Amino acid sequence: MKLNALQALVAAIEEGSLRGAARRMGVSQPALTKLVRELEIELAAPLLARHSQGVRPTPQGQVLFEHAIKVARELANATDQIQQLGGHMRGELNVAAVPVAMMLLIPETLRTFSRAFPDILLRVSEELFVEQLQKLRSGQVDLVVGGIPEGLPSGEFIAEALMSTSMVVVARRGSRHARAKRLSELSQAAWVYTGTSAQSGYAARLFESHGMVAPPVGAMVNSTLALLALLGSGDLLGLMPEQFIAHPLGQDITRVPLEEPGLPLTIGTIIRSGSVVSPAIRQFIAHLQRAAHQLNKV
Question: Could you give the domains of the chain?
Answer without folding.
Answer: 3-82 (1.10.10.10), 90-298 (3.40.190.290)
